[in-house]
Amino acid sequence: MTGLAIRIGAFARGLLGWFAERPDMVLLAVLAVVCVVRGNALADARKDVERQKAVAAQWQADFIAQRNEMRKFAGLVRDAAVQAAKDDVANRKRVEREWSAKLEKQSHDYQSSLAAAYAGVDRRMRSGSAEGGTGAAGGCGDAELPRLSIMPDGPLPAGRAAIISRADALICVGNTVRLEALIAAWNDAASIDINGH
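Now predict its structure.
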């Protein structure tokens, strides 16, 4: 073993002596080592640049894909807004048609009820006390209703009460029929499904 160590030491001394005699070779050897190290570093840098380019290309592709998806989504939202506006117009027209039909029916019913109520007041004022109701809104069934007397001229006779004028009776009946018609119209308006199709 010592022989081997002696041989390696002799070789190293010879090599160092040879480099000492030729300094330009030492410089070339150092440059070669630097070039090898720098070449490896350059190759690593190139690989890193290529890796960064690939990452940047992937990011760009992801960005473009996301931008395209957002544009599609914006188009869908725009189309949905247009369709919603069309649906709103159609729904508004439907509600207006339904309301007009119900309002026309309520108006006709109101006019008929008002005419019947006025005729009933006139009939009761002309007739005797034996005429009764026929189960109207008050639920009296066939109760006998007293005759409505016409307001006499002059002072009220003794023992007579609750006499009203025809005008007052018509006002009361008209207001009652009008209120019932408003309630019916309100109920009809509430029955319209404003969000339906």
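Residues 23-126 form the longest helix (104 residues).
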